[in-house]
Amino acid sequence: MRLPSGVVTVLAVVLNSGVGLAASPPSRQASATPPPLPPGVSATLWRLSVPKGLEPTPERVALGEKLFREKRLSVDNTVACMTCHEPEFGFTDGKPLSEGVKQQKVMRNSPTVLNALFNATQFWDGRAGTLEDQAKLPILNPREMGMPDADTVMKKVRGIPEYVTDFQAVFGREPTFDDLAVAIAAFERMQFSGDARFDRFIMGDSKALTASEKNGWALFNGKARCNSCHAGNAVSPLFSDQKFHNIGVAAHKQDFVTLARKGVQVVRTGDEKQIDELALNSEFSELGRFLVTKQENDVGSFKTPTLRNVGITGPYMHDGSLATLWDVMDHYNKGGVANPYLDGGMQRLGLTEPEIDDLVAFLFTLTDTKFDKLNKEQLAKQRARKNTRPERDTAIAMGKKGNLGDLAPNPDLNVKNPADLGIYGDVTPVTATKQR
User: Fold this and answer.
1) 346: which residues sit within 8 A by CB, 6+ positions away?
2) Could you tell me if 242 and 123 are in contact, meaning their C-beta atoms sit under 8 angstroms apart?
């Protein structure tokens, strides 16, 4: 699949723009040979996302998968990476907050590993710059896998004969913590996803979506303003701008001003281990990106998550506080929750109930077809909870109280329907004519 002219340059800038705590990642060069890819994943993007020297060879991937499933990497042999990122559940755990050793809950919801290789930074607050750094931190976090330090981890690994043999075969040396992370990251780099009904639709199959789903796509790009942060096109195939925003999710339970003042005194900028522990184990978790940058405009800001496979990766938001996509739409429809650091793009949307239904219907089309059964099950479960809507405030959404700005205009779909736009790669002559 070919990307439109100029996209390669844009992608290179985007993929190298993330600010992480670790050293700069290896040079990203389009040298790796991509595996067979689904229609929603560009070969060029895949090459740009794989650092030179860290290509996911079959041997590294096999060892990485073994380590990803290995509970002996935790202090009490009860938790593996897969505990919070189960492949059959879209590499999430389906829980609002993840649980580690001794059934300790962390302060964040587990994001999916699917397509994580394309992220500019890792974790909800971007505290890791590479998949390798991301692979290390949960092993050492007291509430996740609980190992005290890297030396203890590797002493345990070297005491398992099969791993001594495996690391020697793959890396030509005894096991090291860096090589362990390289192997896990190699496995994660092969967990890409881009074969949803939406992909068939956007590549020219007009029958891939229902009328309701197409209207949801039009609303997504128009009145609902979802594409402001979740644009889906060749430059942004993950439906994420890779940036950080305060949308008011945690504002109802935190005094951000006081918490930020305390955070300035506590957070040691650049201390990766401390920030990781504060993010998952303390009241400072809700400061989000601020923990990484200590910049006031980052208070309460979290990374825009991918919308791919969103139907099966709930509960939603960094704290798992929104149970359904109807709850998510209600949150945005009322403009979030007001707080001193609320993102300037947040405003009421004025969406009607049928429009919300169409948007939710569209979002479920972003799930990869390999998860069709689970996607249908999750849609049924969420629809059953549709009448329980703790985030709904129709009066604010419709402008009957409060003052959260003017509404976006309703597009004239007979003139230019956003559902006809956003083609990823090659366009047919008919579609090209429509776009002029």
Assistant:
1) 247, 248, 332, 335, 336, 404
2) no
Query: Among the options 70, 144, 213, 355, which is catalytic?
Result: 144
What are φ and ψ of residue 194, in 5° steps? -170, 40
Spatial distance between the Cα atoms of 97 and 319, rounded to a whole number of angstroms: 6
Q: Which of 20-29, 66-75, 78-87, 312-321 has the lowest mean pLDDT?
A: 20-29
270-307 burial, b at 16+ Cβ within 10 Å, e below that, comes to eebeebbbbbbbeebbbbbbbbbbbeeebbbbbbbbbb
Return the DSSP state at 315. S
Q: Residue 154: which H helix or E strand, with range?
A: helix 150-158
E-only strand ranges, 49-205:
none
Gap between the Cα atoms of 216 and 213, Å rounded = 5
Going along the chain from its start, the domains and CATH numbers come out as 7-189 (1.10.760.10), 197-247+304-435 (1.10.760), 251-299 (no CATH)
Token representation of residue 284: 């400072």
Name the phi and psi angles at 92, rounded to 5: -130, -175
pLDDT in tens, 278-298: 999 999 999 999 999 999 999
Residue 355 is among the residues annotated as catalytic for this protein: no
Report whether pLDDT(414) > 70.
Answer: no
DSSP code at position 301:
B
